[in-house]
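Summary: Need help interpreting a holo structure output

Steps to reproduce:
1. Submit the protein chain below together with the SMILES for coenzyme A.
2. Request a joint structure prediction with the ligand placed.
3. Inspect the structure token block that comes back.

Expected: a single structure record containing both the chain and the bound molecule.
Actual: see attached output.

Input attached:
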Amino acid sequence: MARSCDSYREWQTYYFEELRQAESVFDFGNYALIENAWESRTLAVKVGHIHYLLKEGEFSFDSLHQITERAVLESFDLLVCKVYCSDVLANRSLIAAGFSCVDTSMIYTHDCVQVGRSLPSASFNVREAEPDDQGAAFSLAEQSFSAHFGRFHQDPNIELTRAHGIYGQWVRSSFAGYADKILVAEEAGTLLGLSIWRYGSKLEQRLLPGLAHYSLGFVSTQAMRNGIFSALTQAGVQLLQQKGYRIIEGPTHAGNIPVQRVYVKYGWKPADATATYHLWLKK
Ligand SMILES: CC(C)(COP(=O)(O)OP(=O)(O)OC[C@H]1O[C@@H](n2cnc3c(N)ncnc32)[C@H](O)[C@@H]1OP(=O)(O)O)[C@@H](O)C(=O)NCCC(=O)NCCS
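--- attached output ---
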């Protein structure tokens, strides 16, 4: 069943239902507060994400206040909440409650039914990663993201060295099972770039069997602007298409022009935009 890209928000409702089944959920009806164990470990503080299932204009400052009070009692250090940029009430409520905006992202989707544009010939080779690639992939992530400007970098309570380090941890977790597919680009035995892909979650596979996710991609700073990310992205799309996936969702920072140029060139379409907020409860 091919889905329209317009149904991206519909997928989010399934995601919310799945999250509510998590063990450590604090359930507030249409809101849920859940510890993000990976971020807690990586940032060495207790991080809680606020999720919600609401239509635009239904976000409530009072509910936010109630969740924040509970989060203090539960010893959370940092609260994170991602909302749609177009949801004026949600954005206003978060700002009024003292949250700071640390990231604005674009969400693109790719409809695999479309015939992809072909790539120019290249001197590098794209293949699936092997366990032995992990060390080089980790070092490459640290190098490639050294001048990045993502969510963790924008928060003045997170040291820049720790923010950079998050991407290396992301790679480690991906090799440890978080990723379903990892692709690498290499030339003469040297790793030049990597892209990480995930199949739909169990719930998504049951309800929306065609949905898969781009998770992360990066290229060596010395090898940028040579079409490596384009090749990794096209190869990832083809791999997922062969596995029967129809729609691939890919987020990126609103300021990440290279990623968006590649997406647009290869037929991805903007589907939505989100803003992410942080509130520190102890600093
Ligand atoms: C984003 C990134 C993966 C792109 O990799 P890449 O191999 O250089 O990408 P490609 O060469 O395939 O294509 C990049 C496109 O962006 C353009 N581009 C590159 N740098 C640019 C810049 N600073 N400003 C505007 N456009 C830029 C290129 O010209 C090309 O577009 P074109 O084909 O229309 O000419 C790489 O820059 C990177 O690793 N950045 C740091 C990590 C990161 O941001 N990862 C993505 C997280 S979602």
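--- end attachment ---

Reviewer comment: The first helix runs from residue 8 to 20. Residues 144-145, 148, 216-219, 224-230, 252, 256-259, 261-262, 265 surround coenzyme A (CB under 6 Å).
Status: needs-info
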